[in-house]
Amino acid sequence: MLNNTSKGIAALIVMTCIGASMGLFARWLEEAMGLYQQVFFRILAGFILGIPLFYKKTNLSKVHHIPLGEWLLIFLRGSAIYLFGITFGTRAFIAAKYSNVAFIMALPVTALLGLIIFRGSFNFRKIILLITSFIGVLIIAVKDYTQIFIWDVGAYWALLATSLVSFGILARKWHSELLNNQEITQLVLFFAVIQLFIASLATGESIGAIKWSFATIVVVFTAGLFNVLYMLLANYGFQKVDALLANNIVGMQPIFAIVIGYIGFQDIPTMHLA
């Protein structure tokens, strides 16, 4: 029988596999709709799918008992992960090589933020573990080391996305015990949908310009399913697992992303000035 930590690790591994595929949806939907529109519809689909998936675990009567601080945290996480993080990540996957974005994901942002925000203990063993895990991904992810610190625009978008998503996921530890992971997932998605809808209108994206097709609908709902599962697994995993260990698990995401990038787009990781 697995303990909570083992279950959390398993959840993070699955989350990592799902996260590696997110760029595929960004590229597939690029021609069909605007930036905020595609993120909006992906998250909206995730929220809709979450209703039947989580209805047995959802207690609507809790809404009346949620304190203001909890509401603000939910709103903040929706903003950090989706309004800014996933949107910036989508822009990065569109603007840069899939595998280059994967390299940025290998940076130990989650562990560093966990140390700064939650003041976790940092000893020599943990530092060595962090460095070796990063170097391992680096060896796999980068072809031309002479240009590793010369980033294109997409790389900067990826760094912003990674930082914001990491913060939003780590903020799970600030939630009280009032809401379970399914309820938190749905509420975060709900507020993210509202924020993304407003952002889409504010940036002048035209609804009439969206190119709907059966394939587009399938991609949107597949992306939605992946998003709702990603959020649920992140909520559960980061609740149960130390930030440093979680970072090392999430550090495997670039490996999966590089494979996807090579198979889907023949991308080979090289950092260069755009």
Summarize the structure in words.
By secondary structure, the protein is an all-alpha fold. It is built from twelve helices and no strands. The radius of gyration is 18 Å and the shape is globular. The protein starts with a helix and ends in a 9-residue tail after the last helix.
Mean pLDDT: 81
Q: Which structural class fits the helix and strand makeup?
A: mainly alpha
Distance between the termini: 51 Å
Rg value: 18 Å
Total count of strands: 0
Largest sheet: none
Helices and strands, in N-to-C order? HHHHHHHHHHHH
Total of helices: 12
Low-confidence stretches: 268-274
Strand content: under 5%
Number of structurally distinct domains: 1
The 3D shape can be described as globular
Overall helicity: over 70%
Secondary structure elements and pairings:
Layout: H1 4-20, H2 22-28, H3 35-54, H4 68-95, H5 98-105, H6 109-118, H7 124-141, H8 153-170, H9 181-202, H10 214-240, H11 243-250, H12 253-265
Helix pairs in contact: 1-10, 1-12, 2-4, 3-4, 3-9, 3-10, 4-8, 4-9, 5-8, 5-12, 6-8, 6-11, 9-10
Supply the key terms.
single chain, 274 residues, mainly alpha, 12 helices, 72% helix, 0% strand, globular
TL;DR?
It is built from twelve helices and no strands. The protein has helices spanning 4-20, 22-28, 35-54, 68-95, 98-105, 109-118, 124-141, 153-170, 181-202, 214-240, 243-250, 253-265. It starts with a helix and ends in a 9-residue tail after the last helix.
